[in-house]
Amino acid sequence: MPKLQDDPDWGEVGKDPYSEPAQRLIQRHVRDARKPDEFTALKESLQREGQTDPGVMTYDGVLVNANTRAVALREFEDPNRRYIRVAVLPQTTQPEQLALLELRLQMQKELKVDYTLTNELLFIEELSSERRLSDAQIARELRIFPESDKKGANEVNLRLRLLDLIRTLRRIPSEPLPLTFFDTLGYEQLREVYRTHAGLLERDPAEAERYLQSFLLSVAVGVTPVHQIRNIDSGFMGDYMLPQLEEDEVVGEFAPKLAARSGGSKPPAGGADALLVPGDDDEAAVDVKGLIDVVTNRDKRVEVPDSKFILGREDVRDAIKAAIITGVKEKKRDVRDADKLEAPISAVKAATREVTKAIDAVRAVASDEEFDLKQKKSLEAAYKKLKRAVRNLETQLTKDEILGS
Question: In 10 A of CB 359, how many CB atoms?
Fold first, then answer.
């Protein structure tokens, strides 16, 4: 349960998960996993209909499922109803068998909270590292690419790496983010980031880190669609976000100080340090990590360096979000313009490659008896059409003073 791992109280009591303090904390999180009206509905169902299905318990007394049901039953006023019906597993149950049973029970949908992204990833990790199930076994049980054991195993392995990526991301801010922070994402976004980060990591670890920071800042302010995330790279915040942020009505005039420039003044001591970055080769460098701290920490006040101004955290967050979204549009426009300028060159190069292929193809069939007169005539007609197209291109290039320039 990600929320339990994120709870600061779990660190100490979690050393003995079966102790009374640990069980009380678990009970609170199990209850809070449902909306109040959903938990009330479960209690009413138990009051009205009773326990229609037994839970499952190990021989040592550990509930495998029905934990939410047990929490609800504990709140009944009638002590005679504060019990749970269970099927007790035999003492000979092996860890692998217990793992598979737990997996199947947890993935059922009846009166259960749907698994979140991080819940599922943690569950896969537990099955892999603690229960020692193979990637293929996990894939089969979770119905991941059921048509192919190999594809399923590869996907499980990838999801374990995505969990490692999330853990790397959560440690970027000064105050580590809870795992549940990433439940707004889906596998599509994470796969996109994983592929890009892995490629950068091989050739430039520093750029790979800047890329992760840029991605995390985007997510932190609510920019998560894949078509937008795909345009975020390691230089995006300086090249596109910052110019847009400077145009914001509320934050704009403070943008240069919120994102330190190369050669800027040294930040004053105190909370404003987090907003500035040391000198950088990029004249419009942005301290992305500092901005992540601003939009994710608990302090709702943002001190503007070298001034007496105080901004609201939500105002800064909204301004950065708008700047990223507009910046993505600007980048797409720049790419289209660049593609338009490169289009004639790319087309001529492609045509040259095709002509070279044609030469090789002619050589291959020239002495072939099956290459008959009809086909030769067709090739001749196609060649004359090609010559006319080349003459027309030459005329256009001469008219536009490109040839001979």
Answer: 9
Q: What is the Cα–Cα distance from 165 to 221, expressed in whole angstroms?
A: 19
Enter the tokens of residue 336.
């289209």
Q: Which helix (H) or strand (E) element contains residue 310?
A: strand 310-312
Statement: residue 403 has pLDDT above 80: yes
Give pLDDT tens digits for 15-30: 887 888 888 888 888 8
- 251-267 pLDDT tens trace: 999 998 888 743 333 44
Residue spans per domain, the chain:
224-350
Q: How far apart are CA 59 and CA 63, in angstroms?
A: 10
> Under a CB-based contact definition with an 8 Å cutoff, are residues 163 and 122 in contact?
yes
Q: Is the CB of residue 182 less than 8 Å from the CB of residue 205?
A: no
- Give the whole-angstrom CA distance, residue 182 versus residue 398: 57
Length of the chain: 405
- 81 DSSP assignment: G
CA–CA distance, 15 with 48 (Å, rounded to integer):
38
CA distance linking residue 199 with residue 208, whole number of Å: 8
**SS3 label, residue 301:** strand
Contact predicate 272/303, CB 8 Å: yes
Please say whether the beta carbons of 221 and 184 come within 8 A: no
Nearest CA to 228 among 382, 295, 220, 219?
Answer: 219
